[in-house]
Design brief:
Layout: E1 7-16, E2 19-29, E3 34-38, H1 45-53, E4 60-65, E5 68-69, H2 72-75, E6 78-81, H3 93-103, H4 108-121, H5 137-149, E7 155-159, H6 167-182, E8 187-190, H7 194-200, E9 203-208, E10 211-216, H8 218-224, E11 227-232, E12 248-253, E13 256-261, H9 267-275, E14 282-286, H10 290-301
Parallel strand pairs: 3-8, 3-9, 6-7, 7-8
Antiparallel strand pairs: 1-2, 1-4, 4-5, 9-10, 11-13, 11-14, 12-13
Helix pairs in contact: 3-4
GO molecular function: ATP binding; ATP hydrolysis activity
InterPro entries: AAA+_ATPase, ABC_transporter-like_ATP-bd, ABC_transporter-like_CS, DrrA1/2-like_C, P-loop_NTPase
Family: Belongs to the ABC transporter superfamily.
Length: about 300
């Protein structure tokens, strides 16, 4: 049965001396949701994940799963993939996964069966008896994901799971995460690959300097930002759009002008102003991508 409440990070703060690692961090990852956690290095993503897993203790705030405080028993049902590989380098792939499955409470037969299943699912069949240290970085990453999944967790917390993967492996991992979410599991992962986050996630949280500065669906975040118009008017003089009320000129180069335009501004007025200078070869509107939104949010917070 899928719980009604998911993984809740409730007003969590953490300091290291004078350094504020987290400040009132609050968000929820709902059952069956893929939640992307994005931010620059040092923004607080890993600290949040480690607190959720009990690796670190918060100074204040709470972490709950299914509406209840996290306990040691609860954490055994979590799947965690750290950014730094936490594998035993001299252990063979199969032995390592079986060992980790047993640590999470699976009986020996069940641990072997689960390990074999994930080895096959993640394309590691030919490497199952290799030592981890002899694998490529991409295959080590696959083993790390298998280690997070081998005990059939109820929550997945993944720190940079796509780092170092080739496009085929990215597709495999993306499909696995979608399948887990479809089973009702809350999945939260951090990534610097914002195009992938935009494509994969139901909701996204943008973190800056230890605080959640934006959190919503990608579509909602993009819709809340002013759209941009690209106008290619080769005969237009520099500054032709500067006098249009409400319009911000983002760039002008070789007759191509990019304008930031609020939704309440009449784009037909802009088109007519451009046509008054001569022919218009392009007039197109687009919403900022997640990467563009992220850059703007971080820049505003500096």
């Amino acid at each position: 049965m899928v719980p009604e409440a998911g993984l809740e990070i409730d007003h969590v703060s953490k300091r290291y001396g004078d350094v504020v690692a987290l400040s009132d961090m609050t968000f929820e990852v709902r059952p069956g949701e893929l939640f992307g956690f994005v931010g620059s290095n040092g923004a607080g993503k890993t600290t949040t994940m480690r607190i959720a897993l009990g690796v670190l203790e918060a100074d204040s705030g709470a972490v709950r799963w299914a509406g209840e405080p996290i306990t040691l028993s609860t954490r055994r049902r979590f799947g965690y993939m750290p950014e730094e590989r936490g594998l035993y380098p001299k252990m063979k792939v199969l032995d390592q996964l079986v060992y980790l499955a047993k640590l999470h409470g699976l009986p020996s037969n069940g641990a072997h069966r689960a390990a074999d299943d994930w080895i096959v699912r993640l394309g590691l069949r030919e490497r199952r008896l290799d030592e981890v240290q002899k694998l490529s970085l991409g295959n080590q990453q696959r083993v790390q994901l298998a280690a997070a999944l081998v005990h059939n967790p109820e929550v997945l917390v993944l720190d940079e799971p796509f780092s170092g993967l080739d496009p085929v492996a990215v597709d495999v991992m993306s499909q696995v995460l979608r399948e887990k979410a479809a089973e009702g599991i809350p999945v939260v992962f951090s990534s610097h690959q914002l195009d992938l986050v935009q494509r994969l996630c139901d909701r996204v949280g943008i973190v800056n300097k230890g605080s959640m500065v934006a959190c919503d669906t990608v579509d909602a975040l993009r819709s809340s930002a002013a759209s941009e118009l690209v106008v290619h008017a080769p005969k237009a003089p520099t500054g032709w759009a500067a006098g249009i009320p409400g319009v911000e000129v983002v760039s002008e180069q070789d007759g191509r002008t990019t304008l930031r335009v609020p939704d309440d501004v009449d784009d037909q007025q802009i088109l007519q102003t451009a046509l008054d200078t001569g022919p218009v070869h392009e007039f197109s509107r687009h919403r900022p991508s997640l990467a563009e939104l992220y850059r703007n949010v971080v820049k505003e917070g500096q």
